[in-house]
Amino acid sequence: MKKYKLLYLLPAALLFGCEPEIEDVATNGGSADFSVYVAVGNSLTSGIQGESLTLKGQEYCYPNIIATQLKSLGGGEFKQPLLKGECATKGVFTTFYPVPTSNLVLPSIVLKATPTGLAPVFPDPTMDWYSAPEFFENISAEGPYNNVGASGAKVGSLNDPAFSSTNNWFERFSSPGETVLEAAMKNNPTFFSLWIGANDVLGYSTSGGDEGGRAITSPTEFARDLNEALDTLTRTGAKGIIANIPSVPGIAYFNTIPLGTILDAAQASALTAGYAGYNAALKNPLLRIPAAEVAQRTITFTAGQFNYFVVTDPTLKTDRTSAGIPNIRQITSSEHLILRTPQDSLLSGWGTAKPIPGIYHINQEELFKINAATADYNSIIKNAADLRGLAHYDAYAAFNVISTTGIIEDGISLNGDYISGGMFSLDGVHPSTRGHAVAANGFIDAINAKYGSNIQSVSVSNYPSVEVTP
Q: Taking the complete model, does pTM exceed 0.85, yes or no?
C-alpha cells in the first residue's frame, strides 16, 4: 500500500529551490458513482465488537471507514442509526448467541486469569440486568439510513417484512413491515456493499452444531434469497461490491480453547482406572461394536504428555446407551471446542473425569456440514457477483491468511489468535477496531480493481489497538 507524505516533501522543495516531482495522488471514481453509498449486512456491518454494540463500534465499523474514504470522490453523507444514552456508552447485547428475548444493556465480556491464560467470561443472556429505554425508541423518522446492517440477519432476512418486528435492532430504525432492502433503497443508492450469509451457518456452528438446535440454510434457499437481494439493489443501475464468508472454523471462537491437557502420574493413573470398565465393555462381543469404532472410542491417558479431552459424541455409529455405554471418545486434533466452553469446568474435571457436552464441541460430521455450506454459499456469491458485473471481496481467502500465517499492515502484525492476534474482538467472532480497518481495505482494493477507481486505503496503525468495549 502506497502512502504519500506530502507534508514531508514540500519543505524539501523549498529547501532546494525547485519543485519536487510528486506522483499524482488525485482520487477518481473510475466507472462507479459513489455519491450515495449504502451498506447492507449483519452484525459485521453494524459494528458489533465483543458481542455488544456501542456508539464507538458504529463509528469504527468498516462501512463508515469506507464512506469516509469515498468523500474525496464525491461520496455524500453516510447516516447511521447511532445509539443514544446508556446504549451508546455501555453497549447493547446482540442476538449473537444465544438469542435473548430482547436487546438489553449488559455488562461487557471480561477476561479472567486462569492457569492456562486469560479466558473470557460472557454475560448471562438470560438475566435482565437493566433495560435501555433509549434503545427501544424508534428513530426511523430520522432516516433514511445508509447503514442498514442488522445483528442476526441472514440472507433470507433482507426481504422479510416480519424482520422489522422480530429483530430488535432493525425494529429500532425501520417502519412496521419495512424490509431491510426497502430501508436501503429509500436512499436511491448509486453504490452499495453487501456482506451477508455468515449467520446462515454461524448460528449452527457457535451453538455447538447439531446439539444447538439451529439449522444451516440450504444452498437453494441461500441462492434464491441472495439473487433476490442483488436484483433489488441493482434495479436502478447501482453498482456495488459483495463479500463472501470467511471460514467459520478459522475464527478465534473455534481455535482458542485447548483440546487437552498435560497430566501428572497420579492423575493419569486415576483416570486410566476410572475408564477401565468402559474400555473393557466396548470389547464385549455381545455389544457388536466394530473393531475400528472400539479403537476410536477407547480412552487412554499418559502421564507427562498432552492428553486429548473426552467429549460426548452422538454421531458415533453404534449407539449402546441402552446398555449403559455412553457415546464418548477423545477429541481429535482436527476438531474444535467453542470459546464459550466453561474453563472453570475444565479445571474441575470436564474433559478428563467428565465428558465435555456436545454443545461445546464441533465434531467431524458437523465440521463437514459447516465447510460444505460455506463453500456452497461462496460459490453462489461469486457467481451472483460475476453475473451482474459487481466487485467481489474474497474475505474467505483474506481471513484464511490472517488465521494461518498472519499479516503485517503498517508494520503491525495481525493474526487470528485470541486477544494477542489483534484481529478479533473479545467475542472471537467479530473484528476488532483494527480488524474493521483491515476489512475496509479489503473492500477498497476489490472496488478499485473492478471499477478502476482510486479510493485511498486507510492506515491500520491510525486505529486503536484494542477493541471497543463499553
A: yes
